[in-house]
Design goal:
This protein is of the alpha/beta class. The protein has a single domain, classed as TIM Barrel. It contains 14 helices and 14 strands. The protein has an 8-stranded parallel barrel, surrounded by 11 helices. α2 links the parallel β3 and β4. The longest helix is centred in the last third of the chain and has 22 residues.
């Protein structure tokens, strides 16, 4: 077994572009209950997977409305989408736009590479590029996708430690993963099986890699079908607390990350089915049941994770669903509207509502300034425009 020297500490003196911070710095504030310099209960930061410029705009609008910490995650497939199939150019384009928005923002944000695979030549190039352009990276080396098995602990540690050695001196925080998460998030992130994180391996993993952010597997799943319709997803909260005790002994600043944590709002499903029925019976018959079969992770379960040290809550599927529901509504409202900007506005404002409600649920508001709305009054409703929803929450 390879013997490791002490891993490099995260360079917390690194100055990122205006209003940019590492994901660890933001999530540590959440775990420690730091809001505006005041001590409150621990809260969580939803990490929004961003795939378009409109998604970035919607997220910033939500962050600035609530005074929230912002965490924008970019997957390999999203980076390719930003730049005609080239993830490295996608990194340059997406990060430059986010930095431009952050420069004139009232809040602080972090950018994060989601599911960076350091085990392949192409994956290594993306991770290396992300270290240069983003403020945080995930080194997801827990799965041997070619053979569809969990990668050995020794290999996972070795690959992840390489990323820490490269990123931490530059102030870029690193997230590792221990265990395998089932499901499909997008074309570049999928697994047909899952495994729980082994507590006996956990201490060795965080000690030898030096990661300050870690995604243990405790029962969540990627994708829109996290269980059977009519049933609630059951997470292993007991295991989460067991891992937290280990982390607090080794490195109290360790942040846990929940992958596959989308909650899938029932009102979004209802709205989509209504739009399909209004468009035509054939559409409703063909796709309505698919929408009704979507199963997310119950929010009460996620709250249990927040109490067990999970300060980064990944969310993607619920926002994709919100976008598609709003697009169906826009098409149903005016199928002959030849103005792409009109459809963009409809879907972007719907995404903003989706982001707002998740930030409120996670209690990530009032961190950098007081919210511009009464968070207790905000209602997420795709039948209501964003302007009206905000006005009603004043």
């Amino acid at each position: 077994m390879k013997k490791y020297t002490d891993p490099p500490q995260l360079n917390v003196s690194r100055r990122f572009p205006d209003n940019m911070m590492s994901a660890h710095a933001l999530t540590l504030k959440a775990k420690q209950g730091d809001k505006g310099g005041k001590k409150v209960a621990s809260y969580a930061i939803p990490a929004f997977n961003i795939t378009t410029i409109q998604g970035i705009n919607a997220a910033f609008d939500a962050f600035e409305t609530l005074g929230s910490s912002g965490l924008l995650a970019l997957s390999n497939s999203a980076l390719k989408h930003f730049s005609a199939g080239d993830p490295i150019s996608g990194l340059e384009i997406a990060s430059a736009y986010i930095q431009a928005r952050a420069k004139r923002s009232s809040i602080k944000v972090a950018t994060h590479l989601d599911h960076g695979d350091y085990t392949t030549e192409s994956g290594r190039k993306v991770v290396q590029g992300a270290v240069q352009h983003l403020t945080s990276v995930m080194a997801d080396n827990s799965t041997d996708h070619a053979n569809k098995v969990a990668r050995s602990l020794e290999e996972n540690i070795a690959y992840t430690r390489e990323v820490v050695d490269m990123a931490h001196p530059l102030g870029v925080s690193v997230e590792g993963e221990l265990g395998v998460l089932a499901g499909e998030e997008d074309e570049d992130t999928k697994s047909e099986f899952s495994t729980y994180t082994n507590p006996d391996e956990f201490e060795q993993f965080i000690t030898e890699t030096g990661v300050l952010m870690v995604a243990p597997t405790i029962g969540t799943m990627h994708g829109p079908n996290k269980g059977k319709p009519g049933t609630k997803v059951k997470l292993n909260i007991e295991l989460a607390h067991e891992l937290l005790k280990i982390a607090d002994q080794v490195q109290p600043e360790t942040i846990f990350v929940a992958h596959g944590a989308s909650t899938l709002y029932p009102q979004v499903v209802d709205y989509a089915v209504e739009q399909l029925e209004a468009i035509g019976s054939s559409m409703a018959e063909r796709y309505g049941q698919t929408w009704k079969n979507f199963v997310g992770t119950d929010w009460e379960q996620i709250q249990g994770l927040i109490g067990a040290g999970f300060a980064k809550i990944n969310t993607d599927t619920e926002n994709r669903q919100t976008f598609l529901s709003a697009l169906l509504g826009a098409i149903n409202e005016n199928s002959a509207k030849i103005d792409i900007r009109w459809y963009d506005k409809k879907t972007t404002e719907a995404l903003t509502q989706s982001y707002l409600i998740k930030l409120i649920m996670a209690e990530n508001y009032g961190v950098w300034h007081e919210p511009k709305i009464n968070v207790d009054k905000f209602k997420f409703d795709l039948n209501t425009s964003l302007a009206d929803a905000l006005a009603a929450a004043k």
